[in-house]
Specification:
With 211 residues, the chain is α+β, with helices and mostly antiparallel strands. It has a single domain (4-197), classed as Gcn5-related N-acetyltransferase (GNAT) (Aminopeptidase), CATH 3.40.630. It has eight helices and nine strands. Strands 1, 2, 3, 4, 5, 6, 7, 8 and 9 form a nine-stranded mixed β-sheet that branches. Helix 2 crosses helix 4 (61-69). Coenzyme A is lined by residues 50, 53-54, 123-126, 131-137, 157, 161, 165-168, 170-171, 174. Keywords: Transferase.
Length: 211
């Protein structure tokens, strides 16, 4: 099983090339410390709607520097999609390897016992001009591969998905996530918990089984 420190030591080993549906060559790779300015460009370029859906702490250089400074220091693994020719960052794919108590409790009530050994959190955000073209679906097998290499068997959504974000809900469902249920966040907004089992088709405890 690979560690976050190991990925940070040799990020090039995790690079993959792919092509958007309109033929733009792209690179998928871990975020590196020297990405701060380009990551700031990505965050600053997000529309107000994308900002609302993705809920980053900030959208300026300081926010980007914080994300870069966090590499291999905490429980997060961030990967980017960048245009190969311009090196413009057009997507941020994020894993968290920790599970907040509130998430564990919500899932427990829904009959799913989360385990930090085998479960992780994930969220995706693309630049507005790259949304709705199948790109996050194209990269999803690589996401699953990263999760497996981290020793994970299941992926839950990081902070859930807002109930009024039908494109993201469709995206996650078409890539195999199952809806677990709605919850109300600290800000009063309704979100949905969703989970993907990387190995089997159902994640719910069998009727009568222990939750
Ligand atoms: C959510 C996101 C990562 C998905 O990536 P993407 O590359 O745009 O997704 P895809 O194009 O692969 O899939 C989107 C699906 O939603 C469908 N869709 C688009 N708008 C929709 C809508 N209003 N209602 C229902 N489905 C919709 C698309 O048709 C497509 O499904 P299909 O292939 O069956 O036709 C991306 O759109 C994004 O970054 N959005 C802004 C940030 C965000 O919402 N992040 C998620 C936070 S949980």
């Amino acid at each position: 099983m690979v560690s976050l420190a190991r990925i940070a030591e040799d990020p090039d080993a995790w690079r993959s090339r792919l092509e958007s549906s309109d033929g733009v060559p792209l690179v998928f790779r871990p975020l590196v410390r020297t990405d701060a300015e380009r990551l700031a460009g990505f965050l600053a370029g997000l529309s107000s709607e994308s900002r609302r859906f993705s809920t980053f702490d900030g959208h300026d250089l300081a926010a980007a520097q914080e994300l870069c400074a966090a590499i291999a220091r905490y429980d997060k693994l961030r990967l980017v999609l960048e245009e190969e020719a311009s090196a413009r960052i057009v997507g941020l794919l994020e894993f968290s390897l920790s599970l907040p108590e509130g998430d564990v409790e919500r899932y427990r009530k829904a009959g799913i016992r989360l385990d930090e050994e085998t479960d992780c959190r994930f969220g995706a955000t693309l630049a507005d001009d790259y949304q709705g073209k199948g790109l996050a679906t194209l990269v999803f097998p690589l996401i699953c591969d990263v999760a497996r290499r981290l020793g994970k068997h299941r992926i839950i959504l990081w902070g859930g998905v807002l109930a009024d974000n039908p494109r993201a809900i469709r995206y996650y469902e078409k890539n195999g996530f199952q809806q677990v249920g709605p919850f109300t966040g600290a800000d009063g907004r309704t979100s949905l918990d969703m989970i993907l089992d990387l190995g089997s088709s159902s994640v719910f405890t069998a009727p009568g089984g222990e939750a």
